[in-house]
User: Which sequence fits this backbone?
């Protein structure tokens, strides 16, 4: 029986199907967990109770109810919209997010695919999201959507660079681009890289917030200015796609930050044999710590203006990140 | 020489021909838009993120109150006027009632005047707290809203306990104020005017208001992003403000210490000690700061008024059918949004012959085409929000 199962899962297609099923289950689950954390935490921060009735206790079923509601909605496409682009945009946004799951190491050997250029892959794929957003903004045939899409594109150019440069420090310290390898390097070094790469970590988190277009960098949506930005014309399950993508990419970007800077699934003092089981739990705990910080920012800060964001990126973050790389390189070579 | 000129012309023509053609976009903001405070519509020519020729379109909210008041009796008109600026409904009633009383040459009892004053300041606090709630929201910060509205609720509860209404109190009567709900008829000798425990609850509530003012200050004023978004944005020089008839906190933010509470005598403000907060630069930040400071001054006034409120009747002697003698008068008052004035013309009948309403928001909004010329789209919202107008007050 066991051998049958092993045989079954060693079959490429079966294991692929299993992995796909796992991701397909994980994304709504993680999306809902983060979404629920967001509504409850924001309520706490704003002296409210939050959802209370759905599901009977704590309103735990609120997001399920919301999801069902989205499926019931009419699927509206504006008459002047570019239909194929309008339809495919949410898919691209979600695909960009889902692909990031491929390289997140959940435990020792517990990774969908340990690419040798893992972090490179992650950064490349994460910018797909912005292309989807730009498509959504362009195809909606709405001026607010267009402005939101253009703002998202401007944001991508400003923030992709600090995001990549911030990562380089950790890659230099680890000597590898494989995500699994970076965690191994931290285990061998005996400390998480955030100790040496604090600047890199901060820059990465700021850039990740901009990448996610969350407050204080939510200019592409900017509810009070652009109504709902590139989301204005979306309704029903296409809107849900964007929603899921936002929460899922909050998770994946935090997971990448955890892997690069906070030791991934590893905690100092825990033996390897325990890590195999505890790894995912440790990773989740760290990820949710970062997600909490993002939610905290969201409900504390107002939003920047587009030009202020550009000057922050070009005048501060990029020079700082370059300096960080230079210092890290010197450190690596001489010490 | 000629060759040079030809070259210059040639260069200028080529530069025109190779430059990209980027037509401007006409952007319609509103009337359905999250931050136009109701149904304001702005038509702007947008070049990228920069807006030019911003043209406000108003009138979606017009309810014809000036005309309606010509066919209403004086006591009926208070129900109309407290719907003008619904965020501070109570404050709208007072100048109208004072105008009618002025023509009738009525001596309003002290206690009624004090009650009017306390409630007007409460309306001011509630109006400014709405601004404190909505302005950060327009800049993207949602949280101050809940703190500000929570304390506003205490103030509204008190207003309700006295007048029976939270937004549209309809509490003023010509010659005085209405006795509290359930406290007997107006003609009886002894009436209980304010609900039991009103003073202690008010002290408690204004204490909370001071607390939330500090809280909001630390939450908003300590935030670098808010400062970056508001400082130096939408500067309104004194001369421009004066020429457009901008009044109230918006004028004071530009550095003019002009407050009708100090100048006019529609309510006995001269007996209280309070300051006029004044801004320095006239930018959005100063307009925010002036309103926060005014909340604290209003609390000071309320505390003094509660300590010094005299006893006595609530109503002057008025005939059963109110007729205002022939004449005309203009009474203006410092409302939360600015100067509110009623020009009342009476031909001796039961209702006004003509009532011209000068509302603060209308003049404050008229500055928009000037102040929004060439600003960024996000700044449109930041500036518009800082002017704090209510569309009901604009269209009437």
Assistant:
């Amino acid at each position: 029986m066991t051998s049958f199962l092993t045989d079954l899962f060693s079959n490429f297609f079966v294991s692929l199907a299993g992995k796909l099923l796992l991701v397909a289950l994980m994304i709504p689950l993680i999306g809902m967990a983060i979404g629920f954390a967001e509504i409850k935490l924001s309520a706490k921060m704003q002296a409210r109770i939050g959802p209370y009735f759905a599901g009977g206790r704590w309103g735990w079923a609120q997001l399920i109810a919301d999801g069902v509601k989205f499926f019931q909605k009419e699927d509206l496409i504006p008459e002047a919209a570019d239909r194929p682009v309008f339809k495919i945009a949410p898919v691209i946004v979600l695909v960009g997010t889902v692909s990031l799951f491929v390289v997140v190491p959940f435990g020792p050997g517990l990774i969908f695919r340990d690419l040798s250029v893992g972090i490179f892959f992650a950064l490349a794929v994460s910018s797909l999201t912005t292309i989807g957003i730009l498509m959504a903004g362009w195809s909606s045939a709405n001026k607010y959507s267009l402005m939101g899409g253009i703002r998202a594109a401007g944001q991508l150019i400003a923030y992709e660079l600090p995001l990549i440069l911030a990562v380089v420090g950790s890659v230099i310290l680890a000597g590898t681009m494989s995500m699994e390898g970076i965690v191994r390097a931290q285990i061998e070094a005996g400390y998480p890289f955030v100790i040496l790469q604090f600047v890199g970590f901060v820059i990465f988190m700021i850039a990740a917030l901009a990448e996610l277009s969350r407050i204080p960098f939510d200019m592409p949506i900017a509810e009070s200015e652009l109504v709902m930005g590139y989301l204005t014309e979306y309704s029903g399950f296409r809107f849900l796609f964007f929603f899921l993508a936002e929460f899922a990419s909050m998770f994946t970007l935090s997971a990448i930050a955890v892997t690069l800077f906070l030791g991934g699934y590893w905690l100092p003092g825990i033996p390897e044999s325990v890590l195999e089981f505890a790894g995912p739990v440790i990773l989740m705990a760290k990820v949710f710590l970062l997600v909490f910080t993002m939610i905290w920012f969201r409900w504390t800060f107002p939003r920047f203006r587009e030009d202020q964001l550009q000057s922050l990126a070009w005048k501060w973050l990029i020079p700082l990140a370059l300096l960080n790389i230079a210092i890290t390189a010197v450190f690596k070579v001489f010490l | 020489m000629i060759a040079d000129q030809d070259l210059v012309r040639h260069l200028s023509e080529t530069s025109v021909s190779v430059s990209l053609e980027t037509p401007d976009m006409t952007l319609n903001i509103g009337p359905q838009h999250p931050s136009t405070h109701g149904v304001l519509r702005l038509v702007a020519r947008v070049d990228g993120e920069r807006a030019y020729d911003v043209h406000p379109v108003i009138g979606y909210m017009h309810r014809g109150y000036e005309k309606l008041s010509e066919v209403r009796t004086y006591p009926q008109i208070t129900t109309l006027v407290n719907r003008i600026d619904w965020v501070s409904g109570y404050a709208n009633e007072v100048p109208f009632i004072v105008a009618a009383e002025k023509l009738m040459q009525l001596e309003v009892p002290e206690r009624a005047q004090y009650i009017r004053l306390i409630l007007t300041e409460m309306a001011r606090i509630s109006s400014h707290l709405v601004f404190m709630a909505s302005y950060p929201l327009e800049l993207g910060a949602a949280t101050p809203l809940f703190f500000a509205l929570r304390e506003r609720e205490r103030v509204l509860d008190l207003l309700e306990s006295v007048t029976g209404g939270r937004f549209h109190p309809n509490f003023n009567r010509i010659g005085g104020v209405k006795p509290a709900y359930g406290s007997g008829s107006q003609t009886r000798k002894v009436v209980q005017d304010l609900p039991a425990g009103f003073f202690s609850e008010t002290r408690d509530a204004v204490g909370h208001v001071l607390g939330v003012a500090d809280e909001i200050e630390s939450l908003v004023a300590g935030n670098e992003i808010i400062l970056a978004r508001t400082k130096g944005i939408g500067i309104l020089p004194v001369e421009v403000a004066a020429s457009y008839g901008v009044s109230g906190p918006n004028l004071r933010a530009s550095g003019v210490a002009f407050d009708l509470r100090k100048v006019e005598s529609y309510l006995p403000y001269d007996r209280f000690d309070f300051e006029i907060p004044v801004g320095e630069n006239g930018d959005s930040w100063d307009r925010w700061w002036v309103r926060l400071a005014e909340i604290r001054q209003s609390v000071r006034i309320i505390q003094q008024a509660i300590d010094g409120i005299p006893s006595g009747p609530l109503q002057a002697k008025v005939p059963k059918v109110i007729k205002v003698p022939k004449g005309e008068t203009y009474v203006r008052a410092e409302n939360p949004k600015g100067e509110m004035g009623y020009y009342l013309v009476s031909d001796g009948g039961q209702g006004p012959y003509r009532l011209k309403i000068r509302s603060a928001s209308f003049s404050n909004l008229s500055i928009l085409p000037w102040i929004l010329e060439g600003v960024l789209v996000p700044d449109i919202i930041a500036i518009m929000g800082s002017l704090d107008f209510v569309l009901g007050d604009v269209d009437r």
Observations:
- Residues 110-138 of chain B form the longest helix (29 residues).
- The interface with chain A takes residues 25, 27-28, 33-35, 49, 136-143, 145-147, 150, 223, 225-226, 228-229, 376-381 of chain B (CB under 8 Å).
